[in-house]
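User: For my dataset I need records formatted as: sequence, then structure tokens, nothing else. Please produce one.
Assistant:
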Amino acid sequence: MTFLSAPVNGCMISWNTVVMQPENNTHAQTYEAQLRVRYAETDQMGVVYHSNYIVWFEVGRVEMLRQLGFTYRDMEQQDDTHIAVADVHCRFKSPARYDDLITIRTRLINVRESLLHFGYEVVRAADGKALAEGESIHIVVNSEFKRMHLPRKYLAPFLEAAGKG
């Protein structure tokens, strides 16, 4: 595990560069979703504003669940199961612009009974150019934000998607 430190306004700030060690998931499946960049998602320079990539990660995640055979709404309404974001990272590679068709590739890096670790790649559909990549870690909670285990009916498809099924 690697820790980095940096002085910030006279204080030393430290952070862990390895949030969660992924297990071997060479057989993890990748799920794709596409969307077209809307004008409202761009900034004054004509490129996609950075926070939209985090929203697109959610689009990829939600569509992945659909492809696994259930919806996030099902998880919430039927089983009081929520996947709260605990950590998210995004690395920008190249700008996306208005009207670009983009593909969001989502995969499960690691699955535990009460933790999900997703990986993302955002590419321009026309040329396959990498635009951004990132990860998010989610804690499984109920509607009162109490940590819980994933019900079996969700754990099994998540494990299979991560190549551990």
